[in-house]
Specification:
By secondary structure, the protein is mostly helical. The protein contains 12 helices and 5 strands. The chain has a 3-stranded mixed sheet with strand order 1-2-3. The chain has a two-stranded antiparallel ribbon with strand order 4-5. Helix 7 runs parallel beside helix 9. The longest helix has 23 residues.
Length: about 240
C-alpha cells in the first residue's frame, strides 16, 4: 500500500533504512552473539592486569553480569522465537577513524608505557559496548547492524578520560551513557534518522561537567593523559598527519 503522491512517510526513529549491500546473518547463530561479548569480559577478568586489583575485577564481572542478565531476559521472551537479525555494514568512517586512533595509542604508548598496560581494559570496554549495542538493538528493533561503530566510541572516549582502577566501573557507565545517547537522541538528516551528538563527546561532556562541578577529577587519569601525550616527540605533528 503506497502513501499518497507528494507525501513521504517519515520512518520511525529507531528503524534504519534498508541497505542493499547489507547481508543478513543466520538467525539461529545471531541470537548467541551477545554471549561472545560476555565471554570476552570474563576472559579479560582472568588477566594479571585485572586480577591484581579487586575493585577492577568486580567492575569487569559486573559489566559481564549486566550483559548476561539482559541476554537471558531477551532469550526468555516469547519474541525470542524470532531471534536477532544481523546485517553486516562496515562503514569507512568507523574503521578509518579506529585505525587513526590506534596509531595515536601505539605512538603515545611507546613513550608512556601505561597506555600499553591499559590495553586489556580497552578490550573489556570494547566487548561491553559491542554487547550493549547488540542487546539494545535487539530489544528495540529485533535487528543489529554489525560493523566497527563501537570501536571509535571506545577509543575516542579513552583518548581523553580514564577512571582510576578503584573507580573503573564508571568507565562502563560513561560508555553506556554514550550508547544510550546514540540510540535515543536522534533527528532526521538528509532523509535518514541518525544520532544528534557524537556518542563519545556526548558522554565525555556530561561526565567532565560533573567531575569539574564536584571537584572529583582526581578519580581519573585526566591530568596524566593531558601531560604525557607530550612525552612522545612531535606528537602534534603526528596528530596533524593522522588527522
Amino acid at each position: 500500500m503506497t502513501a499518497p503522491s507528494g507525501r513521504r512517510r517519515r520512518p520511525p526513529p529507531d528503524v534504519a533504512p534498508p541497505d542493499a549491500g547489507a547481508a543478513a546473518g543466520p538467525d539461529h547463530l545471531a541470537k548467541w552473539m551477545p554471549l561472545a561479548a560476555t565471554l570476552v569480559l570474563l576472559l579479560v577478568s582472568t588477566t594479571g592486569r585485572v586480577q591484581r586489583d579487586a575493585m577492577l575485577m568486580r567492575a569487569v564481572w559486573s559489566a559481564a553480569l549486566v550483559l548476561l542478565v539482559w541476554h537471558t531476559v531477551l532469550l526468555a521472551r516469547p519474541a525470542a522465537a524470532a531471534p536477532l537479525r544481523v546485517q553486516s555494514r562496515p562503514r569507512p568512517q568507523h574503521y578509518i577513524q579506529a585505525l587513526c586512533q590506534l596509531t595515536v595509542y601505539a605512538y603515545w604508548g611507546f613513550y608512556w608505557r601505561p597506555v600499553y598496560d591499559y590495553a586489556w581494559l580497552l578490550a573489556a570496554q570494547l566487548a561491553f559496548v559491542y554487547g550493549l549495542d547488540m542487546l539494545l538493538s535487539w530489544s528495540r528493533r529485533g535487528s543489529y547492524v554489525l560493523g566497527f561503530g563501537p570501536v571509535p566510541i571506545v577509543l575516542s572516549t579513552n583518548l581523553f578520560l580514564w577512571f582510576r582502577d578503584d573507580w573503573y566501573y564508571l568507565q562502563f557507565v560513561m560508555l553506556t551513557v554514550g550508547v544510550l545517547g546514540k540510540e535515543f537522541v536522534r533527528w532526521e538528516r538528509d532523509g535518514r534518522w541518525t544520532h544528534v551528538f557524537n556518542p563519545s563527546a556526548f558522554s565525555l561532556g556530561l561526565f567532565s561537567l560533573v567531575l569539574l562541578a564536584t571537584g572529583t577529577t582526581d578519580l581519573t587519569w585526566g591530568p596524566e593523559i593531558a601531560s604525557t601525550l607530550t612525552l612522545a616527540p612531535h606528537i602534534y605533528l603526528v596528530l596533524f598527519l593522522v588527522g
